[in-house]
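Good morning,

Attaching, inline, the backbone tokens for the sequence recovery test we're adding to the shared suite. The designed sequence is right after.
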């Protein structure tokens, strides 16, 4: 039997909320609400499996082009999620972090997120990382500017890694994208150098324990060599 391998860090590109809703003749915000439920399910599944860190691509720097009504509804849900469920995660001992430029978010949302970060800073459990107003290229530019501001004249990979939002944390072992799309869409471009990529046809609101099991089964089949060769090759 195939040995089940558990990733240290699994990252999700949550895609397909709108199409899930359209298929059911529902408004897009209904799809986003079901997407929040799927995020909660995947967090629970990762914690039960012993995953050390889980990341969710919740809102990208490109998502600002969506209709304002949808954006407002999304951030209302983010605040509700922070006030209700992230607070629950903190009490469970999970560590909560965010990556992205939070200054562009509604002030009441930012206030809720800051409270959560402060409450969870000493927790030792699984890390739950939410990418909000995040873009991989912007993250690299931000890191370069931090290095310039520090007066560093010679840069290597470690220096750059130490200026990323994920400094000191493991890169994703696997990145999973839902809804059949097969691209990273500006997500964790630096960290994804050796991530396994899994693309699934299920829309994000349909992610459940069965889908998570399928992800672990597929990941367990992968032979991660990081540029090396097998001894038998």
């Amino acid at each position: 039997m195939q040995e089940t391998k558990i990733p240290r860090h699994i990252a999700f590109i949550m895609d397909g909320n709108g199409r899930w809703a359209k298929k059911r003749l529902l408004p897009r915000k209904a799809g986003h609400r079901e997407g929040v439920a799927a995020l909660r399910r995947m967090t629970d599944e990762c914690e039960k499996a012993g995953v050390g860190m889980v990341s969710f691509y919740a809102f990208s720097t490109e998502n600002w082009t969506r209709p304002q009504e949808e954006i407002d509804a999304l951030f209302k849900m983010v605040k509700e999620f922070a006030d209700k469920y992230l607070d629950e995660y903190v009490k469970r001992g999970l560590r909560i972090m965010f990556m992205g430029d939070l200054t562009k978010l509604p002030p009441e949302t930012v206030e809720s997120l800051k409270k959560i970060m402060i409450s969870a800073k000493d927790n030792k459990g699984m890390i739950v990382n939410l990418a909000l107003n995040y873009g991989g290229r912007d993250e690299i530019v931000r890191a370069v500017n931090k290095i310039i501001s520090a007066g560093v004249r010679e840069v290597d990979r470690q220096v750059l890694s130490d200026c990323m939002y994920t400094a000191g944390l493991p890169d994703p072992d696997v990145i999973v994208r839902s809804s059949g799309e097969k691209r990273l869409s500006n997500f964790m471009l630096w960290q994804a150098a050796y991530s396994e990529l899994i693309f699934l046809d299920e829309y994000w609101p349909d992610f459940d324990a069965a889908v998570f099991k399928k992800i672990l089964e597929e990941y367990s089949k992968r032979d991660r060599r990081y540029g090396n060769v097998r001894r038998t090759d």
